[in-house]
Amino acid sequence: MKQLKEASGDINPVHFFISLLGMIIFPFIAKPIMMQVGMVNEKLFQKMMQERKELIPIWMNAILEAN
Hints:
Layout: H1 2-8, H2 13-36, H3 42-65
Helix pairs in contact: 2-3
């Protein structure tokens, strides 16, 4: 957490961590709903999760650099 505080400047590390967890966990929680309403199927969901492996670090770095 100390490294995050130093890197984040004005960003509260707890807020940052909650946002990170949300980006990682929420899609799996929402998966049944998204599948039920036809937004995704299993193949598309897996593809999206693979994309998120690359995108989440980019998004987190953008948040840190925005300050």
